């Protein structure tokens, strides 16, 4: 059945919906991670310092953060599908322009534009989940979505390393352009509209600022947004430093780096997919708290290993994988709890959540380079992100004071949700 902005929509079952949304969300991790094996090569070819090359990663994260602040309210006003299409189109154009980028400055600008393009998938996917579900249902679907999203970091450096085996670093962006082109028909024809006209909000600037103001006055929401942001900071501390630490300090080749980096992402996936099992017994707020404690403990071990060099590469990998697994459990639950009471402005709420996540990631990722681009620098940033997330959770959110969420779909009155599990 064709889908229009005013039609009642038969939404795909949860698995198919997770796959569809995951295809768009994966564009972000692919854009961030595929070129990681090429960072030293880019530094050499464009005659740029390692810190400047790492700033192109920061630019992508900044684009993701800022783009979501605009795209989220837009999706509340005009629906979910059109922003997805526009984002994929912008990403495609920026990826093609990278092929003729003459210097690191132009590359940095184009990476910002790529980030803005991927922001549409990041924010609209969360908004669609909140259109349809909340509480445990939302956390379960987000866990499945994270499975698809988690496959991207597993595959991205390996794909990037494979591409570099046959061509130079610009070939990575050809692959990204092809992927964005494949998303365009999904955005326009396949993915259904989940926000009926009667539930849309004003697109005027004043109304948007009032919505953001209301969200920022919600202590629990702001706290959970910060928890998600500092968890993401830990992840991007790892992403920013891994290429230089693994390849230059420990001597791994590009292909081997891709495999080792992908192994870490597998543990992130393990965390996300263990989450639905945990949800059968505990509330999302309880699971979030336990994972934050475990992630912080693993982070402390990680920084000790980074400082002493005990165990070499293996000594770094084991506690790092534990941190990634804990982050995988935290990532679906923080937004599920944060969005549970803001279904009336799901796009705007998801935008603020995503903007802070990637904004904090953008601010933190250069710290690895500033601290020396070695194992101690990377582990310090990773452990610090997890520790701050735990402190914010305990001091600001105070999860033991939150009520249990109800397990029920939200948008059944407006949208026909397929019963396929």
From TrEMBL:
Highest taxon, organism lineage: Bacteria
Pfam families named among the record's database cross-references: MFS_1
SUPFAM superfamilies (UniProt xref): MFS general substrate transporter (SSF103473)
Membrane topology: Multi-pass membrane protein
Cellular component, GO, one term: plasma membrane
Main location: membrane
Keywords in alphabetical order: Cell membrane, Membrane, Transmembrane, Transmembrane helix, Transport
Any GO BP: xenobiotic detoxification by transmembrane export across the plasma membrane
GO molecular function: xenobiotic transmembrane transporter activity
Listed transmembrane segments: 15-32, 52-71, 83-101, 113-133, 145-166, 172-191, 220-245, 257-275, 287-307, 313-334, 346-369, 375-397
Annotated compartments: Cell membrane
Keyword Membrane: yes
Domain Major facilitator superfamily (MFS) profile, residue spans: 15-402
PROSITE patterns, sorted: MFS, SUGAR_TRANSPORT_1
Similarity comment: Belongs to the major facilitator superfamily. Bcr/CmlA family.
Name of the molecule in the record: Putative multidrug resistance transporter, Bcr/CflA family protein
Source organism (scientific name): Pseudonocardia sulfidoxydans NBRC 16205
């Amino acid at each position: 059945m064709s889908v229009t902005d005013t039609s009642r929509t038969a939404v795909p079952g949860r698995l198919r919906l997770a796959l569809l949304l995951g295809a768009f969300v994966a564009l972000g991790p692919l854009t961030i991670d595929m070129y990681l094996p090429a960072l030293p090569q880019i530094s050499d070819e464009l005659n740029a310092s390692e810190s400047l090359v790492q700033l192109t990663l920061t630019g992508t994260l900044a684009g993701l953060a800022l783009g979501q602040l605009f795209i989220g309210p837009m999706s509340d006003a005009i629906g979910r599908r059109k922003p997805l299409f526009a984002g994929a189109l912008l990403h495609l154009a920026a990826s093609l322009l990278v092929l003729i980028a003459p210097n690191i400055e132009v590359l940095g600008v184009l990476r910002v534009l790529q980030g803005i393009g991927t922001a549409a998938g990041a924010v609209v996917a969360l908004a669609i989940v909140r259109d349809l579900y909340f509480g445990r249902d939302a956390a379960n679907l987000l866990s499945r979505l994270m499975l698809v999203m988690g496959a991207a970091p597993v595959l991205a450096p390996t794909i990037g390393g494979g591409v570099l085996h046959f061509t130079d670093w610009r070939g990575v962006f050809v692959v990204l352009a092809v992927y964005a082109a494949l998303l365009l028909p999904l955005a326009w024809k396949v993915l259904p509209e989940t926000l009926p006209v009667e539930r849309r909000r004003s697109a005027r600037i004043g109304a948007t600022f009032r919505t953001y103001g209301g969200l920022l006055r919600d202590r629990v929401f702001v706290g959970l947004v910060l928890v998600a942001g500092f968890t993401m900071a830990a992840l991007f501390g790892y992403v920013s430093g891994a290429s230089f630490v693994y390849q230059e300090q420990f001597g791994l080749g590009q292909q081997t780096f891709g495999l080792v980096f992908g192994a870490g992402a597998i543990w992130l996936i393990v965390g996300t997919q263990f989450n639905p099992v945990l949800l059968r017994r505990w509330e999302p707020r309880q699971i979030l708290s336990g994972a934050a404690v475990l992630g912080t403990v693993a982070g402390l071990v990680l920084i000790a290993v980074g400082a002493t060099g005990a165990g070499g590469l293996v000594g770094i990998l084991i506690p790092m994988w534990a941190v990634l697994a804990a982050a995988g459990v935290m990532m679906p639950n923080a937004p599920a709890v944060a969005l549970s009471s803001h279904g009336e402005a799901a796009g705007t709420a998801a935008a603020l959540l995503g903007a802070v996540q990637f904004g904090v990631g953008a601010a933190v990722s250069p710290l690895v380079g500033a601290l020396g681009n070695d194992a101690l620098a990377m582990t310090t940033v990773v452990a610090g992100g997890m520790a701050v997330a735990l402190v914010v959770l305990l001091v600001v959110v105070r999860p033991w004071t939150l009520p249990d969420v109800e397990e029920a779909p939200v948008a059944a009155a407006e949208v026909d949700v397929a019963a396929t599990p």
